[in-house]
Amino acid sequence: MRPRRRVTPDAGPQCGGRRFTVTLRRGNMPAALSGNSSSRFMFRHCVLLSAALLGAAVLTPSPVLAETAGTQAMARGDYVRAVRELLVAAKAGDRQAQYELGLAYRDGKGIGRNPAQAFRWFRQAAEKDLPEAQYEVGQMEEDGDGTEKNAADAAEWYRKAATSGNVPAMFALGELYRNGEGVAKDEQQAIRWYRPAADKNDIDSQLALGKLYQQGVGTPKNPSEAAVWFRKAAQLGSPEGSYLLALLLIDADPAVHSMGHGPSRASVEAMTLLRSAAGQNYAPAQFYLGMAHLKGIEARLDDGEAVARLLSAADQGYADALHQLGRMYQQGRGVPQDPVRAYMYLELAFEMGDESAGPDREDSAHAMRAGAVQLATRRAQEWVQARGL
């Protein structure tokens, strides 16, 4: 005969101050049902209550499951559901959910953009030592976005994140030290934080480090070391890295600037780098190549190619290119002579910060007929609006 299975009193359910001991016998009803009607009522009440509690436990998602569901929904673009799931987990204290909810509020995904709410959730996750959230808190305090601007507090949050290995925070802290914002200006400290980020292939840090070595700021001037970091950035696809490395190579090779010399290895590499940067529509490289074709030094003399390169740079609001185009339209070099268009480009160059374009602009104005200056000014305004500059 199979022995009876008995649930001990400690394991039995308790309801209404009474603990029920359920004894199971083959072919018999539970003992609790064999008593009087009051006992039967109480047992039935407790069974229903237990079932309700069990159902609630099943229907209520755990913070971990909610965070996972929210992350998955965000990844597939279901932002509204993502926010709903993340909110459950964030309110339960899940730091990753708090961080991701902060991103949703910051970017306006699945919910209205709300920098103050973004800061609130980032801050909660940051206080739980999540480096990514610490970095975001630093960004918002540095910019005064969603909270009061406080560069000193931003520096401390960046430091916490950087100490935990967060690469963007390393660069951001280096920038604060380089500019003396929120901390005492200290280029050596800037280098200290740029370097580990640069070693982890952070392009911005590599470029910043290269510039300090190039200029001899916070460290002895070292063009060779600068070239190392610019090359690393270039190899990672940075057009600015390619451009800066090209300039270093050109400056180090006197033959590049002389007429009548065949191209050196350095000049060939430099022009390759410049074309690579220009191919990524990097305005300074476009301008440099345009001037090289205009002068016939480092590149073949070709006014048409010069104009094409300069136009590419000018379309990005690059003031030097705008100024040069204005001069070319004044002179009719590579383009038809056109005082109105010349004035337009010179006006644009001046407005973009090239004060040296002012005298050239005035020279154009003197050669223009009545009403032409107003026409050129209107065209300049339309040019800016068309490009969203």
Sequence-ordered SSE layout with sheet pairings:
Blueprint (H helix, E strand, L loop, with lengths): L4 E2 L7 E2 L2 E2 L3 E2 L12 H23 L3 H13 L3 H13 L3 H13 L7 H12 L4 H13 L7 H13 L3 H13 L7 H13 L3 H13 L7 H13 L3 H13 L13 H15 L3 H13 L7 H12 L4 H13 L7 H13 L5 H10 L5 H16 L2
Antiparallel strand pairs: 1-4, 2-3
Q: Short summary of the structure?
A:
The protein has 389 residues and is an all-alpha fold.
Largest sheet: 2 strands, antiparallel
Low-confidence runs of at least 5 consecutive residues: 1-35, 46-60
> Total helix count?
19
Mean pLDDT: 86
- Structural class, please? mainly alpha
Task: Kindly describe this structure.
- β2 and β3 (18-19) form a beta hairpin.
- It contains 19 helices and 4 strands.
- The radius of gyration is 35 Å and the shape is globular.
- Helix content is 66%, strand content 2%.
- It is mainly alpha-helical and 389 residues long.
- It has a two-stranded antiparallel sheet with strand order 1-4. A two-stranded antiparallel ribbon has the order 2-3.
Question: What labels would you give this structure?
Answer:
single chain, 389 residues, mainly alpha, Serine Threonine Protein Phosphatase 5, Tetratricopeptide repeat, two-stranded antiparallel sheet, two-stranded antiparallel ribbon, 19 helices, 4 strands, 2% strand, globular, disordered N terminus
